[in-house]
UniProtKB/TrEMBL annotation:
Coiled-coil segments on the chain, per record: none
Stored InterPro entries: UCP010219 (IPR016566)
Keywords: Membrane, Transmembrane, Transmembrane helix
Protein name, per record: DUF3159 domain-containing protein
Length: 217
């Protein structure tokens, strides 16, 4: 049975555009590193320049300044790490740790019955924690959150061996391939899981069944 709300998770969360933007500084780093004859300084400088350009572009489009600045901060931290160690592969070290941490946090959230996918979607929809009082939604968000655990675990499984082997170009390629295509796939599969596991007749993500009388949206 079709759910009441027309939008998908991809439409609610808008992950593809942000994922594309996030890959550009990594491409800039690898390009600058290669053109300069493997200079970490050149790679770091190129990554920061591209990061600033992406930041300006996103602000002009009306994106939230906090989210934009957090993305730029991540680029700067990655560049500083590579500059401090002198190892170009260390530019991607933040990616290894952030994906490992994300996989762990999503898994723990499911065990604690506070699936992060539900937390994120609930915040976007302005529901706070009301969705947690709907057993069907709680179960569906929990099952779909495992898809996100697998997404982050896959990145770690690819990034870590390449990082340990000091494969800078391969890390850059993996950063692109495992960004928006993987995000798009994760959103599609987790949305499919939610649609398949919610019972027939459930009003959908926007309307948790809590037994409470809510004002009309």
């Amino acid at each position: 049975m079709e759910m009441a709300q027309p939008e998908s998770l991809a439409e609610l969360l808008g992950g593809r555009r942000a994922a594309i933007d996030a890959t550009l500084p990594a491409v800039g780093f690898v390009t600058g590193w290669l053109i300069s004859g493997h200079s970490v300084w050149a790679g770091a400088g190129a990554a920061i320049v591209v990061g600033l350009a992406v930041c300006g572009w996103r602000l002009r489009r009306g994106d939230r300044p906090r989210a934009v600045l957090i993305g730029l901060l991540g680029v700067c931290v990655a560049a500083v790490i590579a500059l401090r160690t002198g190892n170009a592969a260390d530019f991607f070290l933040v990616q290894v740790f952030s994906n490992a941490a994300s996989a762990l946090l999503f898994a723990i959230s499911v065990v604690l019955r506070r699936p992060l996918l539900g937390v994120i979607v609930g915040a976007v929809l302005g529901q706070r924690t009301r969705w947690r009082r709907d057993p069907a939604l709680l179960r569906s968000y929990s099952l779909a959150s495992w898809v996100w655990v697998l997404q982050y675990a896959l990145r770690v499984a690819v990034f870590l061996p390449l990082y340990l082997a000091d494969q800078v170009v391969a890390l850059g390629v993996a950063r692109v391939v495992l960004s928006w295509p993987l995000v798009a796939g994760c959103l599609a599969v987790s949305w499919w899981v939610i649609r398949r596991t919610l019972p027939a007749g459930h009003p959908g993500l926007r309307h948790p069944v809590t037994g409470e009388v809510s004002p009309a949206a």
